[in-house]
Amino acid sequence: MTVPDIWSPTDAGEVAAAVNDALASGQTLELLGGGSRRRLGRPVDADVLLDLSLISGIVSYQAEELVLVVAPATPLAEIRTELEHKNQHLAFEPPAFGPLWGDTSASGTIGGAIMIGRGGARRLTAGGARDHVLGVKGVNGFGEAFAAGGRVVKNVTGFDLSKLVTGSFGTLCAVTELTLKVLPRPADAATLVIFGLDDEAAVVAMRQALNLLPVQVSSAAHLPAAVAPASTIKAIADPGVAATLLRIEGFGPSVTARLANLKSALADVGPCVTLDAKASATVWSEVSDATFFAAGVAPLWRLSVPPARGAVLGARLAQQLECRHYYDLAGGAIWLETSAADDAHALAIRGALQEVVAGDGHATLMRASDDVRRSTPPFQPLTPVVADLTERVRRNFDPRRIFNPGRMYA
Amino acid sequence: MLMPAANQAQMARRSEFLSALRAIVPGEGVIDDHAALAAYECDGLMAYRQRPLAVVLPESVQQVSRVLAYCHSVGLNVVPRGAGTSLSGGALPLADGIVLGLGKFNRILEIDYDNRCVVVQPCVTNVAVTDAVASEGFYYAPDPSSQIICSIGGNIAENSGGVHCLKYGMTSNNLLGLELVLIDGTIMRLGGKHLDPAALDLLGLVCGSEGLLCVVTEATVRILRTPETQRALLLGFREVESAGACVAAVIAAGVVPAAMEIMDRIAIHAAEAFVHVGYPLDVEALLLIELDGVEEEVDYLIDIVRQIGTQCGSVSTRTSSSEQQRKSFWAGRKAAFPAMGKISPDFYCVDGTIPRRELPHVLRTIGALSASYGLRVANVFHAGDGNLHPLILYDADRAGELERAEELGAAILKLCVEVGGVLTGEHGVGVEKRDLMDVQFKQADLDQQQRLKCAFDDCGLLNPGKVFPRLHRCAEMGRMHVHRGALRFADIERL
Fold first, then answer.
1. How far B276 CA lies from chain A's nearest CA (Å)?
2. Taking CB atoms and an 8 Å cut-off, how many pairs form between chains A and B?
3. Alpha carbon distances (Å) from A101 to A30, A97, B371
4. Is residue B455 part of a domain?
5. What CATH number labels A291-379?
6. Tens of pLDDT, residues B412-457
7. For chain A, what are the domain ranges?
8. Which domain holds residue B358?
9. Given an 8 Å threshold on Cβ–Cβ distance, is B200 in contact with A251?
10. Which of A43, B56, B124, B398 is the most exposed place for a label (fewest CB within 10 A)?
11. Nearest residue of B to residue A359, measured between CA atoms
């Protein structure tokens, strides 16, 4: 394999010029920001590395309008610091996946977070990345700079290309600017931890917390006994049993009242403890970033299913495979670390998924060697009609397939 | 507003089309009677009317598929229609096309509390979703003002909002899954009861596509727990600026109310005269703020917001202490549209979004425009998210007043874009704002949107004449470096 050239444009105009150069010379481009999410999806073999890391910085931040405009390579850490000055945050809690490959140095860039399109644990109630992208500027595969969306929080003018670009893994365009919706950061938070539940009981308890009680849980996760000890929060790790986590956020008096409601309603379910705001923040970032599986090499999957079906699928997989797993999104997301296999057990996992939820869900391979991700589709194979439409949509952004060729589908 | 010229050759084939369509949808499912077609000649934007070639009312997704495949095979235009309440002319028929009415798709298919969602057919009304789950303490969050009659399918086409979207999102944020049919008859499912797309977010693209990409035949929507407590504050201000500053201060304090609505003097007076709920008449702006959640939270936030109101110079403050009183605070705001009917023969509702900080400047400029066009304008405003609804009062019986009202509306929307906002916050582009799209978007921006149209409907048969000011041939759109060849509406005729 030859080492690709590296082009490093310094502004949106140079990005457009670079794309046009690539079109003129028939070269393909791998788009790269901070690189912390580069090992998600299929490996890209492109002629040129389009290094966007210099397209960085906060363009404008209007806290009272709840609108943040940033260049794509702006580090998430920089954005967090800036937002914290105004007691705001990105409510979808963008996960940092660097630690999965042993890279704890950086939480990545906002562009990377939007391109992978995933939310963290608060996605359950606050929406995902897609729900917080208001506008996008980029250069498409025709070499044209274009804009979509707007810079206000409510807008239905024209097609919602921002949602399409979010989660597109850089296969539609080279993004040069993002407009995001930001929200006030909860003043306080607490987490109720219930110990000793099996998967099925945990999913029922999480559903109860979400459905029956006036408590407005913002996140709900379940760490089985094989995973809970991996938490850095001693109160969760030390008992050595399963831990079901229910997060409550808001103003102090509200958190206190809702926590009391939650405790009284779930009093009979099992022994529990309460985590304060600080411990709460730590454990939910562990849940969001899957740090329980950090720095490993074993294949790691994330399954998305109807929440009420989570435990059924989890139990089936635990029976079939040598694995460790935990649930986020009240059972709607299953993180699954398996033993090594040529196909990372894709056949078994996607087979079980199909049996349990039919077409209502998907399994994404989040970590595996380059070879495995080349031979096994990391993204759920689509039905033929959806695959056709997806390809037509992609082609209408990038007809010559110059952006991240093969990153999503071979 | 100019629509594409009707294709006379297609019009001449009407009886051939009718018999083919009747073979797919038998009985009374195809309407061609001139008088009966009148019921479909307009939607909520009643200034524009056009009788369609025919109306087809399928009953099953297979019929929808076969109707669309047929239309595709003979190049027949299709205008999808839900309840027909669009305020932007999204369901305005074409003389040379059929209206595909989804009215028979009116069943709730499944209520799934375990996964907190409801599966509905597209012509279930918005409020029917909430009604179906209210007894179990749930509701469907998006609540456009037409929620009693508008359909979920229409909400998806327009990505409808409502007064609660700052906190609870628009339709797209509450939509989990779709069954849809492409123009060639292909039936497919996107999403389901799980969160997040498997690959590209086609669901997100389809929502808000105004009937130009596909026909929705089933939707899975998210339901939420009904808040335990809702209370409202009514704050009066001597200056609109102070009301705007108050909204900003509430957000800055970290509070996201369930709703924040501003009404200006004309709207306050009209509403009060209509419903007599005791709105103060000596203020320039009234700010209605609703807080919801557990009781302890609402009580706590009411105090915070009341203090902010005082700091921002509110001259009257009322806090609801009962559900009845909360509803009376809302009664005036919710009656704002019918109240206009009392003080003016006709009114035209404009819908743009602005950065909130521009509110004083925008309202002053609207005042000046109002004077120069000689038409009164009342303003109601979803203040939390900057969505402005100026109501232009006019009399359609006076020659030229409708046209003047439209020109004034266009001037207001241009102003919204000038100050950093957008043409539409929740009503959609439709035909109404189609020719203003160039104000907000550059040609390359519109080209990229139209390419998506081509990916779904390369013959341009679904809802032509809406959203885009110019039509391009898809073959040209797909070519490199093609910026010429715009197929302008050369042979236009006035409706």
1. 31
2. 281
3. 20, 8, 65
4. no
5. 3.30.70.240
6. 999 999 999 999 999 999 999 999 999 999 999 999 999 999 999 9
7. 188-289, 291-379
8. 344-428
9. no
10. B398
11. B192
